[in-house]
Amino acid sequence: MIDARIIDKLKEIVGPDNVAAEIQDLLCYGYDATQMEFLPDAVVHPADTAEVAAVMKLANQERFPVFPRGAGSGFSGGALPKGGGIVLVTTRLNRILRIDTENLIAEVEPGVVTEQFQQEVEKLGLFYPPDPASLKFSTLGGNVAENAGGPRCVKYGVTRDFVMGLEVVLPTGEIIRTGGETYKGVVGYDLTRLLCGSEGTLGVITKIIFKLLPYPEAKKTMLTIFDSIDGAAKAVSTIIGNKIIPTTLEFMDHATLKCVDRRFKMGLPESARAVLLIEVDGDRELIERQAARIQELVKPLGLVECKVAKDAAESEALWKVRRLVSPSLRDVNPDKYNEDIVVPRSKVPDVIRRIEKIQQKYDIPIVNFGHAGDGNIHVNVMIDKEVAGQQEKAHEAIREVFRAALDLGGTMSGEHGVGLSKAPYIPLELSPVQIATMQAVKHALDPNNILNPGKMFPA
Amino acid sequence: MDKKTQHTEALKRVEQELKKCVKCGACRANCPAFSAFQREPAVARGKVALAQHILKGDIGLDDQTYLNMSKCLLCGSCVEKCPNEVPTDEIVIAAREALAEQRGLTTFHQAVGRVIKNRRMMTFGAFAASILGPLFFRKVPQTSGLRLRFPLPFIGNTRHIPGIARKPFLDRHPEVIPGEPGKPRIVFFVGCMTNFVYTEIGEAALALFRHLGCTVIIPKDQQCCGLPGMSGGDLQTVRELAERNLAALERHQADYVMTACATCGGALHKFYPAVVGRRNPELAARLKAIAEKTVDAAQLLQQLGLHPEETGAGEALRITYHDPCHLRTRAITRQPRELLTATPGVELAEMEGADRCCGLGGTFNVYHYGSSMAINEAKSRAIMASGASVVATGCPGCMMQLSDGLKQHGQKTRVMHTLELLARNLRR
After folding, report:
1. Do A24 and B85 touch (CB under 8 A)?
2. Which of A171, A177, A387, B232 could connect to A446 by a Cys-Cys bridge, CB 3.0–4.6 Å?
3. Does B310 or B143 have the greater pLDDT score?
4. pTM here?
5. Which residue of A75, A118, A137 is the best one to mutate when testing the B interface, meaning the one whose CB has the most B CBs within 10 A?
6. Which chain B residues are Cβ-neighbours of A22 within 8 angstroms?
7. Is A252 in contact with A225 (CB distance < 8 Å)?
8. Does B243 contact A at CB distance below 8 Å?
9. CA A233 to CA A55: how far, in whole Å?
10. Which domains does chain A have, with CATH numbers?
11. What is the Cα–Cα distance from B187 to B249, expressed in whole angstroms?
12. Cβ atoms within 10 A of the Cβ of A99, count?
């Protein structure tokens, strides 16, 4: 499919140093955090929009697939070159073009690492809230393409809520702008929102205009420990029901706490069955009031202990519990399927109970933690791939977890996307007409099925 | 690829470690080599993937593997931040060992192995260099550094190299310097850079621990820690040196094994048990015992209650502190700072990214000098921006690299070891 002639043409477009076809380079651009692996035929590192467009035009002429890739840290295989073709890496487009303090917007290229962008805007007293766990290494382009979330979404919303406009190279190689720099704007279809979360199937994002907020004056972190999952879950709906929207409401179940404690000796009380990590931010006086009110509200719900951080160092110590979850899970079993279902907030206890039953039925450990404040629970099915039959069991269990989320009015994925790993399950959530509508959009924009083929929809 | 003709034994020893990597990409945030090369084969995740494919037989121990595996400074930043605690530094060493088994050592690493195994040769070489130096090097005005008069293999003539001491540290002192009874007995593992180049670090260490009444033992038969050999995959040499060092250190009854070189400390504390111990299980228990006794000088000084008010007072200086990777990854970051800020006359101005690697990476600097200095560029700029006239650190290797970078920027910033500042007020 990709022969020496095409490699030469790619080299003409991006320069010889920015096309790799050596086996070792190919192997290093065929994986992501799903741990699936596919071998591309070439890896291309364009430097700007014009080069991306030229690559897409060539791909249409020569009919080879193009797989856009940022940091390759996705959890659903969105950047994986299944079936071969070229991987188009956007990390050389890594400039912050402007930060406009009068209009509170910023324009960036897609290869900028999320945390670096946050640090730059924070230097000017501004705030870009979306905080996916991968923010230290994932790129903003990838965040937009996957519509990334994070703990702070309870209060601030997801990546999509901060994207005002895009520059996009269409699958056929034309360059368009969507949206703009104004908060209001109703002319034409909202292509910006269509492209957010399109997982690199509808266009290659080459510039992003973000909305920014003033940086909050202060924040306060609390670790609340409950003697039951129900108590913790009730706390979530009680807090929000009382018109307080915390920045984050992170939940960890008993299995998670046991993992963390076994490895890191957090010294959590014996009776701890669930934990909520709560953070509020904003005006200093307001958050003091909010924090006090939250403590009052959760007290009758089986609260065992409430630790309130007095300063940044103590806050970091409380967050540590949450950050240690990931390394601790390996002690349960070496391999995990990390799903990210969402249910309406009030249904969190119901879905946890359903997952407990699924766990008993299949006899595999399932560890739950995540963003309870927006009903987004990370369901970690822990297996050992080397034990025969466990993978199959895990897939069955996952299917039932998805069904449970859907039954309760939720969705299969809140953050990770569909990509390859959830494509087989798509018909559980979307009707044939919904799928056909989406595929019609895809076909209209990408008649030759060049861009990220084989993703999102079942083959 | 024919698996049978591949010498992958070293990689097989780390097979379980390879499985821990879930390819999440967290290493991209912290890897100095990735910051310079900006391509996946340079980052920890990529190297783990390549090691896995070598074991599967998909790729060989060839030139390409050699090049990719050379793009690592063994700084341990990836290990420190890895959610799954994948020891990529050990994996890279294993890959380099496999490459050396398959292809033989490079000329450079053969030479390194010969030199580090033979301290007498090093001593003679250093003596010769201290006499003959002026033929090859010219002194860089206003600094204590040297610059080559003409380029030599592996060393360009823009590089600044510290001068060599006329008399090595180990030849200056008796083996045992008795202290007060009841006070700790300390074995001083000196290291080559302190022995031959920065002897003032050794003198400062000696003065400080004597001030505390400690008995300081400087075994005459101690050798190079072997890390330069390890970074080239020459584990045979490392094993020999480790055994000789074990014998030298075990010969004395001591409470601590003290190092003033982050790299030597890293070798004794981490790489000996992890890498040498894994490869030579018969040595594992002894290596572990030494590792448990190994402490960094600043760490131990604080533990023993040094009062820098007494030992370090001197002229007013604005300093900044650079964290050597092999102290940072052992969580020794607080102790040197606390000692320095307690020193009268010393004002600590933190630089941005004090915890980022200086770019030396031992022999990385020799193979990838351009990238090494590209990594160093941010460090030099951060030091300059701090407004400090002295940059303190705990590793002679870092000192050499920091000086090189700063001098190429035309800076007069002095590079000093933490211990030198702490001992300003002591007679040496």
Report:
1. no
2. A171
3. B310
4. 0.93
5. A137
6. 64
7. no
8. no
9. 50
10. 4-89 (3.30.43.10), 96-214 (3.30.465.10), 218-327 (3.30.70.2190), 333-444 (3.30.70.2740)
11. 7
12. 19
**Mean pLDDT in residue range A294-313:** 94
- pLDDT bin (cut points 50, 70, 90) of residue B142 is very low
| Closest by Cβ to B65, choosing from A24, A91, A334 | A24
Cβ–Cβ contact A117 with B under 8 A: no
Beta bridge partners of B314: none
- Amino acid in position B397: G
CB contact under 8 A, A327 and B25: no
How far apart are alpha carbons B291 and B257 in whole angstroms?
8
CB contact under 8 A, B83 and A22: no
Residue B59 to residue A134, Cβ atoms within 8 A: no
Q: List, as ranges, residues 44-73 from B with C-beta within 8 Å of A.
A: 45-46, 49-50, 53, 58-59, 64-65, 68
| Residue among A24, A25, A137 whose CB faces B25 most closely | A137
CA distance A202 to A178: 13
What confidence score (pLDDT) does residue A411 get?
98
**Best CA proximity match to A309, nearest among A186, A220, A219:** A220
Structure confidence at residue A208 as a pLDDT band (50, 70, 90): very high
CB contacts under 8 A, A 85-114 vs B, are 91-92, 113
Cα-Cα-Cα-Cα dihedral sign, residues A48, A53, A54, A56: positive
A97-101, A232-236, B131-135: range with lowest mean pLDDT:
B131-135
Say what percent of chain A tops pLDDT 90. Answer: 87
Minimal C-alpha gap between B47 and chain A (Å):
8
Contact A73 B24 (CB under 8 A): yes
Model confidence over A323-351: pLDDT tens digits?
888 778 888 888 889 999 999 988 998 99
> What residue has token string 């065992």?
A304
**Contact assignment for B50 to A327 by CB distance below 8 Å:** no
B336 C-beta neighbours (distance < 10 Å), count:
28
- B113 phi and psi, to 5 degrees? -60, -45
pLDDT band at B136 (very low <50, low <70, confident <90, very high): low
Residues B382 and B402: their CA atoms lie apart, in Å, by 11
Q: Write out chain B residues lying below 8 Å of A263, CB-based.
A: none
Tokens of B185: 């007995």
Return the residue of B nearest to A338 by Cα. B22
Please answer yes or no on whether B26 and A136 come within 8 Å at the CB atom.
yes
3-state secondary structure of B381: helix
Cα dihedral across residues B187, B193, B199, B200: positive or negative: negative
Q: Which residues contact B280 (CB under 8 A, 6 or more apart)?
A: B239
Sheet holding B256-259, edge to edge: B176-177, B215-217, B185-189, B256-259, B294-296
Domain architecture of chain B: domains with CATH = 3-104 (1.10.1060.10), 109-162 (no CATH), 169-302 (3.40.50), 307-422 (3.40.50)
Q: Which residues pair with B296 in a beta bridge?
A: B259
| Average of per-residue pLDDT across A358-379 | 93
For residue B24, give how far its alpha carbon lies from the nearest alpha carbon of chain A (Å).
4
In A, minimum Cα distance to B29 occurs at: A137
Residues contacting residue B289 through CB under 8 Å, at least 6 positions apart? none
Tokens describing residue B172: 């200056």
Q: Are B68 and B47 in contact (CB under 8 A)?
A: yes
Measured distance CA(A373)–CA(A151) in Å, rounded: 8
Interface touch A23/B64, C-beta < 8 Å: yes
- Chain B: nearest CA to A320, how far in angstroms? 12
Q: Phi and psi at residue B205, in whole multiples of 5°?
A: -60, -45
Q: Are A162 and A211 in contact (CB under 8 A)?
A: yes
